[in-house]
């Protein structure tokens, strides 16, 4: 009877099994034997169960059954890989276990990262008591921690300001680079067209820096007066006797066209680049684009006034109905 009682007592006092998986180090941390896959010895991911009732990771048991059609736990014969069933209960329990483990980890990280957490708790306790009971040591501790907190906040504020400044500078640099690339493209187109016009005029010379086109700079919007013809150098090639006979007409026409060009230069410039900055496939397309703008510029500067040919009145006293013009 005594031995039986002793045997019963010894059976009840058996030491609990250490949650180790085949002696793997650290395999017990934050894990339960019920949630460990017998194949990979890690927390079960997407638990699936065999007919014999054992649960595994789906990937693990699927690969194991491809090599051997027996349960890795009890050697039960599994005829078909399709004879696997999801274990929803184990999946739910594993999810809760992971949430508890994550909460423990966050608490541990918080306690490790906040080195002055205990001291701040002391300050809160001291502030909650009667201030007359504060001694010099406690006041010095509070001042020290407040100075540290002030330095930390100042450093974080300065870092945030530098971050905002850096982002602004990078965006501004990117915008200016894009503008520079656009200006370089426009300058390249202008150089090509100037060269092409010089060649068409028969005045192009590789060593000559004189432009066949009068030296004209884009006027500011506030200046819309007629440009003095003396500001333009006489192009070589127009100094012949044939040009001398046409000089008065030439000067008069050129002055009037320059006036209109000056008054609407920005619009004409926009029209030029919108025509020329399209995708160019070959030289013929480039020439046609330049000819198109030349025709537009010629028509625009040819006429100095307009006059109405007819007037349509939609406010006649004889007819008060609504007028729709399409």
Automatic annotation (TrEMBL):
The stretch of residues making up the signal peptide is none
Region spans: Disordered: 206-226
Coiled-coil annotation reads: 136-200
**Keywords noted in UniProt:** Coiled coil, Ligase, Metal-binding, Zinc, Zinc-finger
UniProt-listed InterPro entries = COP1, Znf_RING, Znf_RING/FYVE/PHD, Znf_RING_CS
Query: What GO molecular functions are on record for this protein?
Result: ligase activity; ubiquitin protein ligase activity; zinc ion binding
User: What is the protein name given in its UniProt record?
Assistant: COP1 ligase
UniProt source species: Ramphastos sulfuratus
């Amino acid at each position: 009877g005594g031995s039986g009682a002793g045997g019963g007592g010894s059976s009840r006092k058996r030491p609990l099994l250490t949650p180790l998986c085949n002696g793997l180090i650290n395999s017990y941390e934050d894990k339960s034997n019920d949630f460990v896959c017998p194949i990979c010895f890690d927390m079960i991911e997407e638990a699936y169960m065999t007919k014999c009732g054992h649960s595994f990771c789906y990937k693990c048991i699927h690969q194991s059954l491809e090599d051997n059609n027996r349960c890795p736990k009890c050697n039960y014969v599994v005829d078909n890989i399709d004879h696997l069933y999801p274990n929803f209960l184990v999946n739910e329990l594993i999810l809760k276990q992971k949430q508890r483990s994550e909460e423990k980890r966050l608490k541990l990280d918080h306690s490790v990262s906040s080195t002055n957490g205990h001291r701040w708790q002391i300050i809160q306790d001291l502030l909650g008591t009667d201030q007359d009971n504060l001694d010099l040591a406690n006041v010095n501790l509070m001042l020290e921690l407040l100075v540290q907190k002030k330095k930390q906040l100042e450093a974080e504020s300065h870092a945030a300001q530098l971050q905002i400044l850096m982002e602004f500078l990078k965006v501004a640099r990117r915008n200016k680079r894009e503008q520079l690339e656009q200006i370089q493209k426009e300058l390249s187109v202008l150089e090509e067209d100037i060269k092409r016009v010089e060649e068409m005029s028969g005045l192009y010379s590789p060593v000559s820096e004189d432009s066949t086109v009068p030296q004209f700079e884009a006027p500011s919007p506030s200046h819309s007066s007629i440009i003095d013809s003396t500001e333009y150098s006489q192009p070589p090639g127009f100094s012949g006797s044939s040009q001398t006979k046409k000089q008065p007409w030439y000067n008069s026409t050129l002055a009037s066209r320059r006036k209109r060009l000056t008054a609407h230069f920005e619009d004409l410039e926009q029209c030029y680049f919108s025509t020329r900055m399209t995708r160019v496939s070959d030289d013929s397309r480039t020439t046609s684009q330049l000819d198109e703008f030349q025709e537009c510029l010629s028509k625009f500067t040819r006429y100095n006034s307009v006059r109405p040919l007819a007037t349509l009145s939609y406010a006649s006293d004889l007819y008060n109905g609504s007028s729709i013009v399409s």
